[in-house]
Amino acid sequence: MKIVNCLIASMVMLNASAQKIGKFGAELGMKTILGKEIRVPYMDVSSYFGFIEPGSKPDEEKAGKKYYYVYVWIPVAAPELGIRMISPVPDKMQPETGDFINPLFTKNQTDRTSYFDTWVSLERAVNIVSFADIKTKLGKANWVSLGYNDDSNELPEQPSGLKYNSVFRATSSVSDPLRALTIGLYRIGFTTFKTGEVQGSFVAQIGAPAKLPGVKIAATANELANAE
Ligand SMILES: [Ca+2]
Hints:
This protein has helices at 2-17, 103-107, 133-137, 221-225, and strands at 31-33, 36-38, 44-52, 60-62, 65-74, 80-86, 100-101, 118-125, 143-149, 166-171, 184-192, 200-208, 216-218. By secondary structure, the protein is mainly β. The protein has a single domain, classed as Jelly Rolls. Strands 4, 5, 8, 9, 11 and 13 form a 6-stranded antiparallel sheet that branches. A 5-stranded mixed sheet has the order 7-3-12-6-10. Strand 1 and strand 2 (36-38) form a beta hairpin. The model is unreliable at 6-19 (pLDDT under 50). Bound molecules: calcium ion (CA). Calcium ion binds next to strand 8.
């Protein structure tokens, strides 16, 4: 009997972590009704599936934390951009046509248990204003932070049972050119809240309230510059 109870308990736990991540809702037009946030889903959502292998070299190391970046080309000005990151990729979530898939995700696709406590940031290279600029100005890219998030209640919990996944939304500013969400090169920075290893699968999404035809996402800016 005990074994059966154990089995049921672990199946319930598996089920909880296997849930889908739900619609990605916008900040613009958000209403609070009876304390509940009602958000209109983003019209455009691009997904990037990745995997960080243990011991892999980070893109940057600051204060004992390993930082990785995903580069995004946004081809039209957006009133708002949202990013979110979930680790590990839920069992029932599979990449679909049009999604961006890092080869390391494919290589490690049987590992849906390794995960990390996500932390995300969104930056824009203010001096890169055309796609051709990526190649020529990348070395002198002037990255400006639009903000970051560590933990969000609106995403499913991690296998630990804690809601440590991340969501961040930036709305375009008309008065501050540095915070305008113009056409350009963006990057999603991510790390783990704790210092030390970042490892496991993740899905990162970038959403906008309007269609953004021609969004491109890649692991490096060079790869992005050469993307079709
Ligand atoms: Ca977190």
